[in-house]
Amino acid sequence: MITLGHYLTLSAVLFAIGLFGVLTKRNVIAVLMSVEILLNAAAIAFAATAAYRDPLFFSGQLFALFIIVVAAAELSIGFAILLTLYRHAGSVSTDVIEEMRG
Amino acid sequence: MIYANLSYWIPLLPFLGFLMLILLGPLFRGRLSGWFATLTMALVAFLALGLLAEALRAAPQWRLVGGEVELARGALSGFPFRLEWPWLSIQGEAGISLTFYIDQLAALVVAMVAVASLFIHLFSIGYMDGEARYPTFFAYLQLFTAAMLTFVMAGNFFIALLAWEVMGLMSYLLIGFYYKKKTAQAAMKKAFLTTKLADLGFMLGLFWLYKELGTFDLATVAEKAALLAVPVASGIGLLVFVAAIGKSAQFPLHVWLLDAMEGPTPVSAMIHAATMVAAGVYLTGRFYPVLEQGQALGYVAWIGGITALFAAVLAPAFADVKKIMAWSTVSQLGYMFLGLGVFGWAAAMFHLLTHAFFKALLFLGSGSMIHGSKTQDIFEMNRLGRYMPWTWVTFAVGALALIGVPPFAGFWSKDLILDVAKEHAPVLWFIGMVAAFFTAFYTTRMFVIAFHHPSLPSPWKAAAWNKDCPELNLKAGDCPPDPAPEPDHKPHESGAEMIIALVALAALSLIVGFWGSPLFGQSLLLFLYPGEAPEIIPASKLFGGYVIGTLVALAGIAVAWGLYARDPLKQRAPLWLTQALQRRLYIDEFYYRVVAEVAQWPTKALWLLDTYVVDVVVDAVGYVTMITGQALRYLQSGKLAVYALYIALGALALVFLGGARW
After folding, report:
1. How far is B624 from chain A (nearest CA, A)?
2. Residue B418 near residue B291 (C-beta atoms within 8 A)
3. Has this prediction a pTM greater than 0.90?
4. Interface of A with B (CB under 8 A)
């Protein structure tokens, strides 16, 4: 029997993986991929919680759909920035964008 | 009443003249601006004399019967003349009205100012010829005249104060007319600061007066003065008297007048001899009821007496003709205050009138001497009597009037003051007599050396004590003394305008004195008669004073003639005395070195407070901000991952600290 607990554990594991990727990866493409994993972890949590706790309404599922849309939008913008960054700096490493250092 | 109703044109015309000249100055070519200003003044003088004639008709008529004054006819209706417009009012209520108030004294002084000013304008046409800023000079003179006339006609003390300040400003600008000269720059500042300091007294006195009586109106103040408590009246009166001391260059605020001679000579004649410096006397005369109520007249008398003597003693130590004249003005103004202080109100005003004419004459005469001989130093003047006959004659008239030789104007008025002083304060009478002796002495000395001696090397120009005393040079830096004229310079007589002005003023110096003399029944004094007048003394009693006065004057002349006719250069006084007198008894130096230093103390204390308290606090705020910033900048690593970690930690913190519920 698969319980809500299993889904939430999966979501937490995915979130941890995504967070690890965001924090450790130097390649911006990899960072963006990790962000996707983070978003999907959240989407799973929403969808599972909705299915188990609130089967009559679809608010959780709707949030999951929203997250997919937002992720798509985010990616398109993210890649656009990435391209610009590549043209500008000739690299897609996070090391080249350290201009904010105090 | 025609002239009384038109009297507002008297100050307005020169003001309009000022506007014309200052705005359209460059359009007036050559001497045109001078003639324009003189013509304006002629119109003003015409109106002022008309006003005086009207006042003479309308004023109450007094008669002298057996030594007692009795009223022959009361004032005609409408006298004193009064013109009033609402001004500074809020919805037609309260506020201060613009009032012109013309009583006997105002009519007399307006006429004096207008006439003296007319001739000084006329003289300036020739004297200032060829100077840069010729129209500006006349514009300034016009505005000054307008302010002086407003001051005299002012019906309340508020307007008087405004006009008083404008006069101070014009005095400042005209002293510094040769603004490229360092000494002139320093002199204009010195004059302005000294008189300004004194003017504080005027303002404070007026505020206090308003608090007590609720009015600035001249006539009302005179009526209500008796309601003031004695200490209050005394305080108000003395505060205003301080302003008079400053403006009239009385001891101890006399220091500015001598240096004011840096201005062009007609300015010295007009502002620093005939009119503005006399405004202090006029003001004190106007505050007479308050001073009398406050029993403060003794101070006035003593200040006047001390100044009269002090200035007359210093004058013989100077070689600059204008500076001698300046001391003489200080001394004569001292006589006026002396007269006021011993209840000789009308006598003081009589002396104000005669002094204005003969001192304007003497100043213009010295201007003519300077113009002709190209030097201000009497020793360097080369027998001017031979080359400048007109100047010689007119200057002699002025000098005799100043010395007080009958029948010239100064004789009648000065002796009258001394006679009154003899009644009320014999000590002051004695001081006045000694001052009269010195007056005769310095005037004769100047006259003999300048007009009858060939030019000599000026003895004190390079004196050692003048070199190590920057204060004598107004601290204006290393200014060399004025150059001596060429050795073969032939003095020449001045132009027609100047001669006409001199002759006219000489005639007035001869005539005006008779008006108040017993020969004509003291009619001027009866005209000014304020209700009680100790100076209206029967002619028989006056005779003794006349004899003594004349003898003292002749003695002064004789001593000076004896000493200076042969050998003017011989050093007779001990050297330390000459030095002390030339350094003006060290009073100026005392002000520069001690008073100025003490006055800086509060400033220095505030500076220390600013440096060691205010600045430290402000700096501390800056340092704290800077150090905090230095510490916090390490948070900004610039690494994307670190920022992401902050976000993650922040989210975690929100979850735990914010109390998430499961």
Report:
1. 18
2. no
3. no
4. 19, 22-25, 31, 94, 97-102
